[in-house]
């Protein structure tokens, strides 16, 4: 009996084992061949199923007996039902994209794989199909222009900057752009140069955009969001693509991408591109443009460095380029740009849960750039290498960047000084992260990691001056995030990060908390809090160089960073644009140009105007026998007059900021500190009626410690100076004679006699001052570039300043510029995105973004006076976009987009001032053939609506570009 039971048991077990069947395969996009991670594979009529992994692979083992049906679904794609006919069958499918991509798996919101619908942040994804039909042909980053909440600064034909949800500068960004997990923002510099980042659209798989603060996972400075450019895998996306572009502004380019899949475990790829074209430029025939061009130098020099470590303004240096205006159009700025990139990568997949990637490349380019200090030309060559590994839940990465910052043959420089201003840098970063589940403890998924960032910089003293030997920048951070599954529909995410900074010997905490309520697979609600920590860039800390030579060798603007406090001495004086003019004490309202500004200068070698005048007066005294005995007293009286206390020729204005004209006083600028930004957000993402994709986000941001480039020293201007030359004698008599009388009384004469003598010689005084003073005021001087003193006084927008103790003491008057740090400001904002899918090929979109306010009056850190300064987010208060995309797999395709930005009033150094509203139209038309050839014509600013992104920048017009691409 026992034997029979044992045999029966074996039979039943064997039958069960024999009854199990397995189906496996890979699910990809029908158009691109890209894997679809997270796709559902379910046996029809049951709850048995699985999901594809990150590479689109799946395996489903069940008790179902063939034949049976499985349903493969991926939100946004048409579902397919397939019959399984054998016990071990392979089913590979290519799904056709439809509307909503809510279940697409992303990696950027939490630094691990998760579905878009479950991310604790506001996310947009630009898929390969959308990128292939883009209206942009020269810069991948411009594809982001219609993404909700993203602001694209189109500064010139080939220079753009990116911001999102907050303050934006011209040069730096608080968005964190990465390429395959590698940071594209140099730590310490803080700039994202899209044109020299090596982004090749042929190799971009998708772009993941995460809006809002991200310091808890990505580190300091990620206050506005993460933009992740993800390239194509050579294993999943083998093949070759070649592209040629050409069009307006002499635009030309070529690119290629080749990927080889050796087998399922190994692949390699190479990609490269070259782009060039003409720039939008300032017009010398336009009065506003000509005024800006007048600030430029026509040569480029590598200046010498003084023993103290700063730029030597009295040495001629080494001329690197002797004529910037080679075409003779009157504008020295470069009127063309170019860039190139070449890279290669290897990918290994030794097992199902292990992927190893190795990549390296070189980028180079030349293009105009803008920062708050003025215009420049960026020229550099960059080499980089990267290694990363995903081993189960362990992620490891290290990369190295070497950027030469330009060379003597191809220098980076500022146009307004003509000085080379290179920043060569070596960047090293490493990350180690582990992701794991604890189903038996808190039912949680954990992400723990550590980051290290280092930037060594070398400017040769040209940019960092006296700080050259103490400018290394490093950050060490560690973080932990837990995702707790509170119920089937409710997740709670909590994270915390600590970063330690070497350059300020301090650290900062960045916490994060979020609730994600999944009301249904198509509707998700979020509420979150994020705190970010930020420090200023190494550039802002250490910069120490002349920014603009107002009167070369005599008066300039000196930019000094805020690693140390900029302070004004208690006895600081008002110093003029030339050392020939004596200083004035502070607080003299309405004071004019001191008389000594004229009489202290020479009319002949060794003979000052004052010597000339005294000689004429004494000659008149001695010529009259009645007054000849008074000659010694007159000479003593003239010698005893304090000429620096006598002013004429207009009135001195109150102090003002040279960059934006706002009133300022001489107040110290404290050192940099860690800035804090608290971000509160609620959001919704969903699909209504299977046709309308909706995303709505409301946020509130409270910032403390934001900083802004500005003038530190007040500037002073003379008003009412028209009479300096024509009526000089009468001015001199009226101001000089009372002092002359008092000096005579001081020698023992009675007042009546003194007045009589002064009156007697009034004609002599008039004639002497008219002859001598006019000669000085109206004789061209090498000190003023061949201009006369009167011309300089009438032309300069400012004539005097109060110097800080941090500017060089080298005989030149320096108006100090730098950075100020402010107390708290807060604002609210919203991003609303809509997309209606008419069918699988046609969609209509619209989005609207706004903030409650963009302009603020803020008090200064470390200043108890209550004085307020103007600051700005430098973004429009309201903006909206709408358009349509028609993107079938083959045949005709088209797109059109309208963009409106409300006028705003940025505070951006010399580019400050109202922008005016912008109304732009982009469009594209193309055709994709079955043989892999694609032809497109794309236009940015199709209607040629000319605008300046900021004041004093070139007018931006239309650019139409054609491109042809061949995939095989």
Short description:
Belongs to the TonB-dependent receptor family. With 968 residues, the chain is mainly beta.
Which helices and strands appear, and what pairs or packs with what?
Layout: H1 2-19, E1 21-29, E2 40-43, E3 49-51, E4 57-62, E5 68-73, E6 80-84, E7 88-90, E8 93-95, E9 105-106, E10 114-115, E11 122-126, H2 128-132, E12 150-154, E13 160-164, E14 175-179, E15 182-183, E16 204-211, H3 215-218, E17 225-231, E18 239-247, E19 251-263, E20 266-278, H4 287-293, E21 300-302, E22 318-321, E23 336-351, E24 354-371, E25 374-391, E26 394-403, E27 413-414, E28 424-438, E29 444-458, E30 473-485, E31 490-501, E32 506-520, E33 523-534, H5 538-542, E34 544-551, E35 555-560, E36 573-576, E37 584-585, E38 593-594, H6 596-599, E39 602-604, E40 607-608, H7 609-623, H8 631-640, E41 647-648, E42 651-652, E43 675-688, E44 692-704, E45 707-711, E46 715-716, E47 718-719, H9 728-746, H10 751-760, H11 762-777, H12 789-795, E48 800-802, E49 813-821, E50 825-837, E51 842-851, E52 855-859, E53 868-872, E54 878-886, E55 891-901, E56 918-928, E57 933-940, E58 959-967
Parallel strand pairs: 1-7, 1-8, 14-17, 35-49
Antiparallel strand pairs: 1-4, 2-3, 2-5, 5-6, 9-10, 11-16, 12-13, 14-15, 16-17, 18-19, 18-58, 19-20, 20-23, 21-22, 23-24, 24-25, 25-26, 25-27, 26-28, 28-29, 29-30, 30-31, 31-32, 32-33, 33-43, 34-35, 36-37, 36-48, 38-41, 39-40, 42-47, 43-44, 44-50, 45-49, 46-48, 50-51, 51-54, 52-53, 54-55, 55-56, ...
Helix pairs in contact: 7-8, 7-11, 8-9, 9-10, 9-11
């Amino acid at each position: 009996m026992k034997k029979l039971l044992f045999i029966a048991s074996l039979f039943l077990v064997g039958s069960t084992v024999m009854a199990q069947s397995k189906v496996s395969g890979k699910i990809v996009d029908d158009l691109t061949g890209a894997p679809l991670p997270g796709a559902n594979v379910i046996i029809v009529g049951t709850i048995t199923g699985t999901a594809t992994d990150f590479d689109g692979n799946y395996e489903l083992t069940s008790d179902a007996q063939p034949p049976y049906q499985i349903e493969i679904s991926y939100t946004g794609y048409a579902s397919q039902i397939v019959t399984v006919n054998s016990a071990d069958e392979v089913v590979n499918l290519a799904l056709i994209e439809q509307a909503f991509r809510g279940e697409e798996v992303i990696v950027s919101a939490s630094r691990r794989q998760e579905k878009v619908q479950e991310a604790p942040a506001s996310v947009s994804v630009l898929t390969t199909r959308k990128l292939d039909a883009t209206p942009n042909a020269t810069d991948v980053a411009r594809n982001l222009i219609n993404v909700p909440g993203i602001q694209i600064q189109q500064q010139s034909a080939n220079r753009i900057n990116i911001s999102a949800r907050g303050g934006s500068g011209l040069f730096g960004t608080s968005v964190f752009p990465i390429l395959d997990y590698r940071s594209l923002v140099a730590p310490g510099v803080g700039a994202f140069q899209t044109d020299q980042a090596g982004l090749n659209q042929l190799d971009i798989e998708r772009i993941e955009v995460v809006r809002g603060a991200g310091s808890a996972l990505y580190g300091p400075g990620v206050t506005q969001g993460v933009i992740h450019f993800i390239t194509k895998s050579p294993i999943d996306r083998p093949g070759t693509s070649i592209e040629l572009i050409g069009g307006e502004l002499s635009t030309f380019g070529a690119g290629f991408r080749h990927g080889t899949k050796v087998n399922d475990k190994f692949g390699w790829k190479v990609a490269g591109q070259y782009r060039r074209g003409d720039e939008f430029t300032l017009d010398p025939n336009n009065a506003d443009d000509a005024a800006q061009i007048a600030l430029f130098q026509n040569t480029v020099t590598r200046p010498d460095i003084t023993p103290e470590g700063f730029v030597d303004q009295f040495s001629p240096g080494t001329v690197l380029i002797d004529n910037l205006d080679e075409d003779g159009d009157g504008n020295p700025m470069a009127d063309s740009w170019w860039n190139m990139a070449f890279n290669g990568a290897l990918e290994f997949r030794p097992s199902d849960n292990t992927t190893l990637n190795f990549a390296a490349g070189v980028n180079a380019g030349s293009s105009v750039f803008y920062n708050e200090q003025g215009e420049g030309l960026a020229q550099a060559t960059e080499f980089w290498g990267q290694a990363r590994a995903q081993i189960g839940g362990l992620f490891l990465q290290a990369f190295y960047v070497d950027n030469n910052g330009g060379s003597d043959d191809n220098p980076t420089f500022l146009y307004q000084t003509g000085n080379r201003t290179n920043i060569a840098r070596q960047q090293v970063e490493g990350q180690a992260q582990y992701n794991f589940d604890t189903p038996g403890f808190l039912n949680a998924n954990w992400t723990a990691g550590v980051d290290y960032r280092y930037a060594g910089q070398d400017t040769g003293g040209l940019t960092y001056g006296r700080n050259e030997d103490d400018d290394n920048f490093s950050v060490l951070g560690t973080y932990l995030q837990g995702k707790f599954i509170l119920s089937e529909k409710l997740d709670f995410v909590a994270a915390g990060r600590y970063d330690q900074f070497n350059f300020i010997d301090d650290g900062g905490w960045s916490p994060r908390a979020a609730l994600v309520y999944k009301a249904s697979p198509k509707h998700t609600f979020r509420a979150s809090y994020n705190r970010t920590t930020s420090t200023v860039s190494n550039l802002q800390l250490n910069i120490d160089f002349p920014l603009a030579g107002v009167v070369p060798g005599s008066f300039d603007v000196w930019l000094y960073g805020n690693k140390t406090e900029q302070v004004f001495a208690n006895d600081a004086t008002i110093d003029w644009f030339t050392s020939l003019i004596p200083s004035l004490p502070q607080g003299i309202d309405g004071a004019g140009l001191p008389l000594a500004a004229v009489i202290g200068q020479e009319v002949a070698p060794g003979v000052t105007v004052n010597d000339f005048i005294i000689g004429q007066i004494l000659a008149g005294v001695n010529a009259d026998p009645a007054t000849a005995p008074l000659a010694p007293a007159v000479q003593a009286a003239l010698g005893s007059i304090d000429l620096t206390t006598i002013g004429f020729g207009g009135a001195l204005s109150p102090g003002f900021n040279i960059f934006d004209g706002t009133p300022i006083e001489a107040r110290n600028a404290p050192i940099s500190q860690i800035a804090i930004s608290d971000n509160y957000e609620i959001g919704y993402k969903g699909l209504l009626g299977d046709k309308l994709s909706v995303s709505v986000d409301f946020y509130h941001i409270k910032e403390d410690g934001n900083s802004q480039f500005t003038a530190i020293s007040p500037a002073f201007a003379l008003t009412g100076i028209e009479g300096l030359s024509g009526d000089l004698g009468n001015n001199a008599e009226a101001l000089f004679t009372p002092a002359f009388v008092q000096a005579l009384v001081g020698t023992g004469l009675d007042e009546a006699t003194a007045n009589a003598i002064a009156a007697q010689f009034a004609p002599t005084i008039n004639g002497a001052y008219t002859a001598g003073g006019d000669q000085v005021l109206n004789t061209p001087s090498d000190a003023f570039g061949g201009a006369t003193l009167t011309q300089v006084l009438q032309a300069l927008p400012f004539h005097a300043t109060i110097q800080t103790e941090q500017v060089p003491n080298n005989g030149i008057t320096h108006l100090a510029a730098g950075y100020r740090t402010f107390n708290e400001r807060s604002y609210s904002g919203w991003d609303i995105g809509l997309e209606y899918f008419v069918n699988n090929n046609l969609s209509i979109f619209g989005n609207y973004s706004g903030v409650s306010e963009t302009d603020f009056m803020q008090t200064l850190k470390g200043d108890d006076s209550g004085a307020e300064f103007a600051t700005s987010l430098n973004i429009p208060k309201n903006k909206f976009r709408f358009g349509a995309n028609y993107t079938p797999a083959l045949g005709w395709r088209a797109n059109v987009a309208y963009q409106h930005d409300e006028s705003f009033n940025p505070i951006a150094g010399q580019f400050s001032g109202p922008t005016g509203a912008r109304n732009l139209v982009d469009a594209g038309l193309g055709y994709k053939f079955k043989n892999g050839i694609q032809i497109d014509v794309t236009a940015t600013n199709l209607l040629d609506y000319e605008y300046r992104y900021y004041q004093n920048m070139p007018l931006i017009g239309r650019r139409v570009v054609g491109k042809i691409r061949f995939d095989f």
